[in-house]
Amino acid sequence: MQEPYYDGIVIHFGELWLKGKNRKDFISLLERNIKSALGQEFGERLERLRDRMVLNVHSEDEVIHCERVLSKVFGISWYAPFRKSDSSIEAIVEKANSFFQGGESVRIEPHRALKSIGFDSKEIVAAFIHGTEKLNFVPEKDGKETLYIDVLENFSMLHKDRVKGAGGLPVGASGKAVVLLSGGIDSPVAAYYAMKRGLKPIFVHFYALQSYEELKSSKIPELLDVLLKYSGNAKVYYIPVHMFQIAAMKEDQKYEVVLFKRFIFETADRIAKIEKAKVMVTGESLGQVSSQTAENLKATSNGIETLFFRPLVGFDKQEIIDASMRLGFYPISIKPYKDACSLRSRNPVTRISPKALEAIYDRNGMGELPEISISKARVEFVP
Ligand code: ATP
Ligand code: MG
Q1: DSSP, res 19
Q2: CA torsion, points 184, 187, 188, 193, in degrees to nearest 10?
Q3: Residue 159, strand partner residues
Q4: CA dist., res. 206 & res. 301, Å (int)
C-alpha cells in the first residue's frame, strides 16, 4: 500500500458574518491560539492564506498529532489533511487518483476560489466523467465518499476527510471571565461552553484541603490540564475556605449552601474587578438539586455587579454527563475529592430571600471574608 502522504492540513474558520476590523482581529487571535496550542515545533509551520490557514505537516503521525490539537481550538469550523496539485485539470485528475485504489464510489466536489481561473467547476467534473478509464475510482453524483477540490490561484488542494472543528469563537475574542471551578461534573462543562463563545477563563477554585501542597497533588490540577487544552494558558486562583467554614459553623446547617454561594460569588466578584473580567461563570443548573432554585440563585447573586453566565441552565444532568464524557472531564470529575462545602445539611433552605440571606451573612462577619481569603490565595499562571 502506498505510504500516506499529505502536503498539509487546511484549516477553515467559522462565524463568517464577522466583518471588517473584527474579522481581522478574530483571524489574528485564532492564529495566535492555534500556534500556542501546537507549540513551537508545529506552530512555526502554520501559514496564513487569504481565507484559510495551512499547517505544513506531512507524515501520518504528524497529521494525527496536529489534528488532535486542532480539534480543541475554538474558532475553527473544519480542517482536513490535503494533497496539493497544480491548478490544471490534468494535474488535478492525476492527484485525485492518489486518494483511492479500490474502485470506490466518489462524489466530486470542486470549488474555485477565483472566478478568473480559466475553467469552471463543471469542466472539472466533466474531466473526471470522461476520463474514467484512467481512474482508480468511480465518479458518481451520489458517491459514498466525497473528494473536495479547492482550486486556488497557483495551486489546488484536494482532500476527502473533512473534520468538524470545535466551532465557536477564538478564546479571548469575548474578553475575560472568572470561572468558578469546583471538582465536580458541572463546572468544567460550563467552562467549556463559556470558552467556546470566546471567553478567556480565569479559574477560581475554593479548597478545603489542609494545605496547598495537598491541593496540588489532588485531582484539581488534572482537571485543569484538560481544560487548558481548550483555553490555552490561564491564570488560576486557589482560595482556602477554612475561615468561611469556621464562620458558617455558628449557623443552622440548612443555610450552609447559600452562605457558601454568597461567599464564593462575592469573592469572585472582587477577582473579576482585579482581573478586569466582565463575566462570572458557574456550573449551576435549575432545579438540579433542591438548593438550585430561582429564588436561591437570586438571593446568592443579588447585587453582584459582575454579569453571571450559567451555561448549563437548560441542561438535564444526563446531558451534562454526556458532554463531560465527550470532552474528557468525566473520569477526573468522578474521582473522590474533599468538597469545600461539606453539604452537611440534608435539607438545605430552598427559598431564601435576598434580605434574609444578607442578614445571616452579615451577622457572622462574612462580608470581610472575601478580601481576607483573596489575600491568602495562591495565584498561578499556567503556560
Ligand atoms: P459542580 O458539579 O460544578 O460541582 P454542583 O452540581 O455540585 O456543581 P453546587 O455545589 O451547587 O453544584 O455548585 C454550583 C456551582 O458553584 C459550581 O458549578 C461551581 O461553578 C461553583 N462552585 C461550587 N463549589 C466550588 C468550589 N469549591 N470552587 C469554585 N467554585 C465552586
Ligand atoms: Mg459540586
Answers
A1: -
A2: 160
A3: 148
A4: 17
Q: Which residues of 287-316 are buried (b: 16+ CB within 10 A; e: fewer)?
A: ebeebbbeebbebbbeeeebebbbbbeebe
Cell of 376: 491568602
Residue type, 157: M
Cα–Cα distance measured from residue 362 to residue 288, given in angstroms and rounded to the nearest whole number: 28
3-class DSSP assignment, residue 299: helix
Helix (H, G, I), strand (E, B) or coil at 307: strand
Sign of the alpha-carbon dihedral angle for 169, 172, 173, 179: positive
Whether the model pTM is above 0.70: yes
Altogether, the residues listed in the chain come to a count of 383
pLDDT 10s digits, 146-185: 999 999 888 999 999 899 999 999 999 999 999 999 999 9
Tell me which fold the domain 176-382 belongs to.
Answer: Rossmann fold (3.40.50)
Counting ligands in written order, which one lies closest to the CA of residue 293? 1
For ligand 1, pick from 179, 182, 267, 286 the residue to mutate: most ligand atoms within 8 Å of CB. 182
What is the fold of 8-164? VC0802-like (3.30.2130)
Q: At what angle do helices 121-130 and 89-97 cross, to 10 degrees?
A: 60
Where do the domains of the chain lie? 8-164, 176-382
Protein residues placing their CB within 5 Å of the ion ligand 2: 182, 184
Longest dimension (CA), the chain: 87
| pLDDT tens for each residue of 260-280 | 999 999 999 999 999 999 999
